[in-house]
TrEMBL record:
<dbReference type="InterPro" id="IPR036237">
    <property type="entry name" value="Xyl_isomerase-like_sf"/>
</dbReference>
<feature type="domain" description="Xylose isomerase-like TIM barrel">
    <location>
        <begin position="31"/>
        <end position="350"/>
    </location>
</feature>
<dbReference type="InterPro" id="IPR050312">
    <property type="entry name" value="IolE/XylAMocC-like"/>
</dbReference>
<dbReference type="Pfam" id="PF01261">
    <property type="entry name" value="AP_endonuc_2"/>
</dbReference>
<protein>
    <recommendedName>
        <fullName>Xylose isomerase-like TIM barrel domain-containing protein</fullName>
    </recommendedName>
</protein>
<dbReference type="InterPro" id="IPR013022">
    <property type="entry name" value="Xyl_isomerase-like_TIM-brl"/>
</dbReference>
């Protein structure tokens, strides 16, 4: 058994897009709320940074797929945000999400992806941030060949480590990813990349999401999009997968490849409509899993924290957290939650509501874990 004090010492981080979804929730307001809630680490979303650049400079041109746009302006804004973080006592843990990057066999698309990476590296330097999160691609035109995928990410890692200061790459499984959408898949890629600055971002939602929602809506109906309703035991295949996760990352060389860990729950049937999800997914041309992720990921214990509300969180978050903790890993946790029904309100109190709730969620998670991590003396 590990000592509960080792859990309480885990660095806590909060993601800026999870502090509000309305345009009035500016990046400085979100960062202030993150600091006021007691966090000392922040994960910054690139879209949040660009939205602030647009607010500060109305003629700002966003960064395109090839990394072109008002790069100098964005870097100036990033330096301003870095200064604000320093004033607030915050360190930028990571910037996300760098997406649709790997697996292209077309030389033009590969060149475009690496040009974009060069621009992001400049922004990270301006932010004084040394970690880039890369989401597993959801582009159906990308190759399914793990050698091709790993080749691109290996080159990205090589270019990242050559930066001054060097940058780490945290590869995150996205449950709606075209080819790598499980922790086993991103781990296999990580082993093939085999670079010291390339590791993983694990996520409670992403690890369990495909167990609780069918990923291929053309072959399902609205009624059966959630094959595992709330209240049922954790499916055996997920339990086995979590057991393997613990075994794999208990090895020291593998454990050090977990760069950070994102925490969130998922709203289930009764709170989120399957018909609504499939409709949103069709309108936006995305997977229902992606639509679910974008709008229905509350904090664990959110209904207890905010009495009288119905958030409908039902995923086995504690099971996933415990599987990671049993490896002995004690790196940073980042709360990345998306609950559009509340976060999109034009209310300046929204950012502090959610950041403070995350700190309360942390307390309740640790309380629930205590029986498994009691002091040994």
């Amino acid at each position: 058994m590990s000592n509960i004090s080792t859990l309480e010492a885990i660095p806590q981080c909060y993601a800026t897009p999870s502090a509000g979804m309305h345009t009035s929730h500016t990046l400085p307001l979100k960062l202030q709320a993150i600091a006021d809630a007691g966090f000392r680490l922040a994960e910054i979303a690139f879209p949040d940074l660009e939205a602030y650049a647009q607010q500060e400079n109305p003629n700002y041109k966003k960064i395109g797929n090839r990394g072109r746009g008002d790069v100098d302006v964005l870097c100036q804004v990033a330096r301003k945000i870095s200064s604000l973080c320093e004033k607030l006592g915050l360190k930028v843990l990571a910037v996300h999400p760098f997406s649709k990057f790997e697996g292209y066999e077309d030389l033009g698309k590969r060149e475009e992806s690496f040009d974009r990476a060069t621009t992001w590296f400049k922004v990270l330097k301006a932010l004084n941030c040394q970690m880039l999160q890369v989401g597993s691609t959801d582009d159906p035109s990308a190759s399914s060949d793990l050698n091709v995928i790993s080749r691109d990410l290996r080159q990205l890692a090589d270019e990242a480590i050559a930066q001054d200061p060097p940058i780490k790459i945290a590869y995150e499984l996205w449950a709606w990813g075209t080819h790598t959408n499980t922790w086993e898949g991103v781990w296999e890629v990580c082993k093939r990349v085999d670079r010291p600055n390339f590791g993983l971002c694990l996520d409670t939602f992403q690890i369990s999401a495909r167990t609780y929602m069918l990923p291929d809506p053309p072959h399902t109906t609205h009624e059966d999009i959630f094959p595992s309703p709330p209240g049922v035991p954790v499916p055996l295949h997920l339990t086995s997968s979590l057991r393997r996760l613990t075994e794999v990352f208990s090895e020291p060389a593998a454990r050090e490849k977990i760069f950070y860990f994102q925490i969130s729950d998922g709203s289930g049937p009764g709170r989120v409509s399957s018909a609504e999800l499939t409709k949103t997914a069709k309108e936006k041309g995305i997977s229902p899993l992606y639509a679910w992720s974008n709008a229905w990921r509350p904090l664990p214990y959110m209904e207890d924290i905010d009495p009288g509300t119905q958030y409908g969180g039902f995923l086995p978050v504690l099971d996933v957290i415990e599987a990671v903790l049993r490896t002995g890993w004690r790196g940073p946790w980042s709360y990345e939650v998306f609950y559009e029904a509340d976060m999109s309100r034009d209310d300046p109190g929204v950012p502090l509501k959610w950041t403070k709730a995350a700190m309360e969620s942390r307390k309740r998670i640790f309380e629930a874990l205590k029986p498994f991590h009691m002091d040994s003396n």
